[in-house]
Amino acid sequence: MTATVVIGIQWGDEGKGKIIDYLAEKNDMVVRFQGGNNAGHTINVDGEVHKFHLIPSGVLHPGKELFLGNGLVLDLTVLKGELDRLADLGINQISLNISDRANIIMPYHRAADSIQEITLGSGNIGTTGRGIGPAYTDKISRHGIRMCDLRDHGNLREKIEKGLHRWKDVIKTDEFQGIRLRTDEIFNMFRDLGEFFLPFISNTSRLINKSIDSGKKVLFEGAQGVLLDVDFGTYPFVTSSHTLSGGVTIGTGVGPTKIDKVIGVIKAYTTRVGKGPFPTELKDRTRDTLQQKGCEIGATTGRTRRCGWLDLVILKHSVMVGGATAGALTKIDVLADFDEIKVCTGYMIDGKETDEFPPSISILDRAKPVYTTLPGPFDLDKETLDMIKTGGRDVMPKNLLNYIEFIENELKIPIEILSFGPERSNTSEI
């Protein structure tokens, strides 16, 4: 097995960064295939917390080849900042390859994103304001600026001028976040950024395909989660890219026949950042407990996450459209002390019960969760956790094993990885 995909199968924030970091040790390459710096992956190694928004999570393992695929939109100032911070940590020998076809987030994209959210008021989507949506808009409308354009200064200047003109009616300002939105100023900025990034730019699809064909082990890293996919998520409260495993083929140029395994990362309960429907959302002390014990604050947004019980309706939908063949269950320790744990197995909509995930948020807003109650607590003291690392299911407390097997039976995929704490070491194959 040489090609494995890791995706989130909720609304993001499932703990993908930690799982990718754990799996990266056994792989040669880590490839990010979609999204932008609206994603945040947090990794805790020996008590030191690292947060990445663009750099693949495998960067903390020496000698790994890192790739940013054509499916991303890249804020080059953010990416350079991450590289600078890694250098400050003594990590400066990085094998980073950036697709020559990846689109670039320009200052006018960030301005348009923020201004559109303000203009929409209470009807806004709740974006991160990083310019992701407008950058993908320009990409799909065939007006985007790509990494390969940094090599041609005349073409770059012309595209910047046209981009500013295209967004002027939305932005209606000459300055945003200290950057003058003028052709010359933006061109000078990206001419300099281009000089820095040119050594990293390559035909990544060719390199990745050749690596797979030669037997190298490749790990594909997703951002956000399936429920934020632009087609199969809770539209319009979604991101602007394809977060499914199918996004790998679009976002890297690697055909689906080369993918061997898809791991869906599942948080042991459900969270969501920002607006949008959330059938199992809690607004009581249980929510407060989940937020506090789970440290539920977004790595990118800094916003407190909404919390609720595990929702198997959305997970069944995500396993199906995301093609998950195995699962990784994270933050199981957060539920450890609950005497009873609820799991949503269906929705009651207009007097009828269903386990089908509806396409319309107007329908989803009317959905009332149908719960199955499972017994707790999980009795996860340090000694038990240490035993699980070596003994797996054979030494698990009965209630924890029951919870895992209930999820497996409903989703029809095995849970192969268990995560029970923020540290890298708090992860085990089961």
What this model shows, in words?
The protein is of the alpha/beta class. Among the domains are: 103-197, Adenylosuccinate Synthetase, subunit A, domain 2 (Orthogonal Bundle), CATH 1.10.300.10; 268-320 and 332-412 and 421-429, Adenylosuccinate Synthetase, subunit A, domain 3 (Adenylosuccinate Synthetase, Chain A, domain 3, Alpha-Beta Complex). The protein has 13 helices and 22 strands. It has helices at residues 16-24, 76-88, 107-120, 132-140, 153-171, 183-197, 204-213, 247-252, 285-293, 312-322, 361-364, 382-391, 398-411; strands at 3-8, 29-32, 41-45, 48-52, 65-68, 73-74, 95-99, 103-104, 175-176, 179-180, 201-202, 218-221, 261-267, 270-272, 306-308, 310-311, 326-330, 340-349, 352-354, 368-375, 415-419, 427-429. The strands form 6 sheets. It has a 10-stranded mixed sheet with strand order 11-7-5-2-12-1-13-17-21-22, with helices on both faces. Strands 16, 18, 19 and 20 form a 4-stranded mixed sheet that branches. Helix 3 (107-120) runs parallel beside helix 5 and helix 5 crosses helix 6. The two termini are 19 Å apart.
Keywords:
4-stranded mixed beta sheet, 430 residues, Adenylosuccinate Synthetase, subunit A, domain 2, alpha/beta, single chain, Adenylosuccinate Synthetase, Chain A, domain 3, 22 strands, 10-stranded mixed beta sheet
**Alpha-carbon distance between the two ends:** 19 Å
β-strand percent reads 15-25%
The fourth-level CATH homologous superfamily of one domain is Adenylosuccinate Synthetase, subunit A, domain 3
Question: Got a strand count?
Answer: 22
**Under the CATH scheme, which architecture of one domain would be assigned?**
Alpha-Beta Complex
Structural class: alpha/beta
Largest sheet: 10 strands, mixed
- Overall residue-averaged pLDDT value: 93
- Biggest sheet strand line-up: 11-7-5-2-12-1-13-17-21-22
Tertiary shape: globular
CATH topology annotation of one domain: Adenylosuccinate Synthetase, Chain A, domain 3
